[in-house]
């Protein structure tokens, strides 16, 4: 390892470890804040709390590690650029890519280690943290009784509308379900208007006093026929006291692991096996459902009578093959089976949706293990060149930029993953989506940093804006006087601008004015103005670009407007208007993409023809500009207009 590589890696590791520890502490504190309700009031010893935090720390790595790499890369390379260390490297012939090479190997190795960590350690931590939380929740459940939901306490399930009092001991609208001997069926229901928690704080008995209520209990007789009548006992009470023994409930084994097969507790091998079984199960459920629908339709029980002419094909109505009585019976069966099938589809829809969502979660979890390692590498190639470009190290600006980039990366990933869980997005693509978004940004920043160009070239932004909004500089020349000239006078201005005391730009303005009067550039050339023939081709390409870009702009406006109308109509439950809107919107947007590509091809042809390939529009910016074409159209149109003017002036002799 060379001295330079050792120096860069050592500097990076110092910053990396410092940032990692700080961020881990911040996220651990956030974890404590999120789960403080589950830990408070449980009389837990320090060992259990330590286990809780120890099991949660590996689960924070997918958040902490990418942010650490991004922030450390910006800080270190920004510091190198700020202290002119990169300038010293370049003076000795060492490029930015060479300076990053040793560190790139380290990041790739870190990405591989991250995969094994996410495949082995994170599932283990998820398994232990999940079961530890369940075991902690069993302790002193009286303190965790939440209003508006059923709270399981042993064999009791307690629900109440509200709790009040100085210690929240009084309850309103209490409902209690008591499980039967089988431990599953709710055999007894108790309802009361008010209740009170009267037990001592450290008592192992939960004392519940109920007032003004009713008691319902299922009776299970020995006789089978009597059981079919579902008898029950009912009583009314003014006051009823229930004592729930918590001694067994509070005697919790914190190392017990009752849940081991959740999707985020499995490694790659376990996920592949589970996904295969879920796919087979989902397929069998679909086949069983379709068979059931087919059986309910009654088609398999309907026999078509033989036709008299065996060698002829029947093309009439199917009902005409039966007599009137049979026709009425078949229509009646069809109506009933349709209603039954519709009800079956509605009742089965939620179950099928849940099965699909459960399968999607496993697929997402599988690909997240691979995507995390790649994300570390991609974010390094975003942060390192970005630090070299902003030329600022330390905590201030790099911290702000890193957090903004990471939040963009993180929230894109969250939205994609949540959409994939419900089936609205591809579950394979979702874990990779934010990384794929960051990949072209990394390529773009690395290219600009390697070429030693600024992060933004503000001239390319300001000039098109000035031209678009007709903003003129103080020293700019107004050429409105040319509109008073006739054609011969304009030709004279083009040939003798210098003698007339005009700036060279007046020649292009004069040509533009003649073009607007129906006189082409070739006609101007035939009138004695010497113009290079290459200009005519560039002008023709620019004309094609104008036509294609205008078509693209109009189609873009139509497509986006119809898309907005689709959501408006859909939210107002107007399907007759929403569906035509989305269909027309899709057609318009597809045509927009076609004309957009044509206009971009024209733009590249234009710059290739005028021998200025370095001015060709950036492909990455064009892709970003695709959904925001009103901005792309404005900038690119003004840029090409200015470059056509320069080409015209160069072509004039």
Please specify the SSE layout and strand pairing:
Blueprint: H1 3-34, H2 36-39, H3 46-56, H4 61-82, H5 85-91, H6 96-137, E1 151-153, E2 156-159, E3 162-164, E4 170-179, E5 186-197, E6 205-218, H7 224-228, E7 232-245, H8 247-250, H9 268-297, H10 324-390, H11 396-421, H12 430-450, H13 458-468, H14 487-495, H15 505-516, H16 521-526, H17 533-571, H18 575-609, H19 619-625, H20 629-651
Helix pairs in contact: 1-4, 1-6, 3-6, 4-10, 4-11, 6-10, 9-10, 10-11, 10-12, 11-12, 13-20, 14-15, 17-18, 17-20
Jot down its keywords.
20 helices; 9% strand; 7 strands; single chain; 653 residues; alpha+beta; extended; 7-stranded antiparallel beta sheet
Question: What would you say about this model in short?
Answer:
63% of the residues lie in helices and 9% in strands. It is an alpha+beta fold and 653 residues long. Strands 1, 2, 3, 4, 5, 6 and 7 form a seven-stranded antiparallel β-sheet that branches.
Number of strands: 7
- The fraction of residues in strands falls at 5-15%
Share of residues in helices: 55-70%
- In one word, what is the shape? extended
What's the helix-strand series?
HHHHHHEEEEEEHEHHHHHHHHHHHHH
Low-confidence stretches: 249-255, 307-311, 456-462
| Helical segment count | 20
What structural class do the secondary elements suggest?
alpha+beta
Radius of gyration: 37 Å
Main sheet record = 7 strands, antiparallel
Distance between the termini: 60 Å
Could you report the average pLDDT, rounded to the nearest whole number?
77
Describe the structure.
The protein is 63% helix and 9% strand. The protein has 20 helices and 7 strands. Strands 1, 2, 3, 4, 5, 6 and 7 form a 7-stranded antiparallel sheet that branches. Helix 4 runs parallel beside helix 10 (324-390) and helix 10 (324-390) runs parallel beside helix 12 (430-450). The longest helix is centred in the middle third of the chain and has 67 residues, at 324-390. The protein is extended and about 120 Å long.
């Amino acid at each position: 390892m060379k001295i330079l590589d050792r120096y860069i890696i050592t500097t990076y590791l110092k910053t990396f470890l410092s940032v990692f520890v700080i961020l881990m502490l911040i996220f651990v504190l956030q974890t404590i804040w999120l789960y403080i309700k589950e830990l408070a009031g449980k009389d837990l010893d320090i060992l259990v709390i330590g286990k809780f935090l120890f099991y949660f720390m590996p689960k924070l790595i997918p958040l902490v590690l990418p942010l650490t790499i991004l922030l450390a890369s910006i800080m270190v390379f920004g510091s190198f650029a700020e202290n002119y260390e990169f300038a010293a490297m370049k003076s000795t012939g060492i490029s930015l890519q060479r300076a990053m090479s040793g560190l790139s190997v380290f990041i790739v190795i870190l990405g591989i280690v991250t995969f094994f960590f996410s495949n082995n350690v994170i599932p283990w931590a998820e398994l232990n943290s999940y079961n530890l939380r369940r075991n902690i929740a069993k302790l002193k459940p009286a303190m965790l009784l939440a209003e508006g939901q059923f709270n399981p306490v042993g064999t009791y399930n307690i629900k109440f509308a509200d709790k009040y009092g100085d210690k929240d001991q009084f309850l309103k609208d209490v409902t209690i379900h008591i499980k039967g001997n089988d431990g599953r069926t709710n055999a007894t229901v108790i309802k009361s208007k008010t209740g009170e928690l009267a037990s001592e704080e450290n008592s192992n008995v939960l004392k519940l006093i109920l007032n003004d209520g009713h008691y319902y209990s299922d009776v299970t007789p020995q006789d089978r026929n009597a059981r079919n009548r579902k008898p029950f006992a009912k009583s009314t009470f003014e006051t009823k006291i229930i004592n729930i023994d918590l001694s067994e409930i509070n005697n919790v084994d914190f190392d017990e692991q009752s849940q081991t097969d959740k999707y985020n507790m499995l490694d790659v091998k376990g996920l592949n096996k589970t996904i295969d079984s879920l796919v087979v199960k989902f397929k069998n459920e679909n086949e069983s459902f379709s068979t059931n629908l087919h059986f309910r339709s009654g088609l398999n029980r309907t026999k078509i009578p033989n036709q008299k002419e065996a060698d002829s094909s029947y093309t009439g109505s199917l009902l005409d093959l039966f007599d009137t009585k049979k026709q009425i019976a078949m229509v009646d069966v069809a109506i009933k089976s349709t209603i039954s099938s519709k009800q079956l589809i509605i009742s089965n829809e939620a179950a099928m949706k849940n099965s699909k969502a459960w399968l999607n979660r496993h697929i997402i979890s599988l690909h997240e293990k691979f995507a995390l390692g790649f994300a570390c590498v991609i974010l390094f190639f975003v942060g390192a060149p970005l630090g070299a470009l902003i030329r600022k190290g330390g905590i201030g600006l790099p911290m702000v930029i890193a957090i903004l980039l990471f939040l963009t990366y993180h929230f894109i990933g969250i939205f994609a993953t949540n959409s994939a869980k419900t089936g609205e997005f591809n579950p394979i693509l979702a874990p990779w989506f934010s990384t794929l978004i960051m990949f072209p940004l990394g390529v773009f920043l690395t290219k600009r940093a390697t070429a030693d160009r600024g992060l933004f070239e503000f001239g390319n932004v300001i000039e098109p804006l000035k031209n678009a909004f007709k903003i003129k500089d103080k020293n700019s020349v107004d050429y409105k006087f040319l509109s008073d000239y006739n054609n011969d006078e304009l030709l004279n201005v083009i040939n003798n601008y210098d003698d007339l005391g005009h700036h060279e730009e007046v020649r292009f303005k004069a040509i533009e004015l003649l073009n607007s009067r129906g006189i082409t550039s070739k006609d101007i050339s035939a009138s004695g103005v010497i113009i290079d023939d290459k200009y005519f081709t560039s002008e023709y390409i620019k004309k094609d670009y104008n036509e294609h870009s205008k078509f693209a702009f109009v189609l873009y406006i139509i497509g986006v407007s119809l898309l907005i109308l689709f959501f408006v109509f859909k939210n107002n439950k107007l399907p007759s208007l929403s569906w035509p809107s989305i269909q027309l919107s899709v057609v318009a947007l597809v045509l927009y993409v076609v004309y957009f590509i044509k206009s971009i091809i024209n733009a590249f042809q234009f710059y290739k023809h005028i021998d200025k390939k370095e001015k060709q529009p950036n492909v990455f910016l064009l892709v970003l500009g695709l959904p925001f074409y009103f901005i792309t159209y404005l900038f690119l149109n003004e840029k090409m207009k200015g470059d056509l003017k320069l080409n015209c002036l160069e072509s004039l002799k």
